[in-house]
Amino acid sequence: TNRWAGMLSGFQNSVPSGTWLTAVDPDTPKPGENVEAVRIAGRTTSQKMVGETMLRLTSQPLYNNINLQFTQESLQSQQRIIQFELLAHLTPIDGGTNEKADSKTK
Asked: What gap in Å lies between CA 80 and CA 90, rounded to an integer?
């Protein structure tokens, strides 16, 4: 759909050099929640780049809230790698509200 195309385009502008996305999956809302979100997994070379990715995604109009789920450091081929996962709440397209994201702003 156009929404997924918008997400992919937004990633192109939001992912800093030295950062790679490894998965983008729709999040399953909890029973009774009406929240649209995607889980974004990736790898980068520093914690700073995780924050930069979050900041850049926040500037995209498609998202109204980006939450860090975890980071985990490891060594691969003698290089420090940071694995991370973000939960990105989508801006409602039908004029509805994103209950989980809205509750954080109240």
From this structure: 31
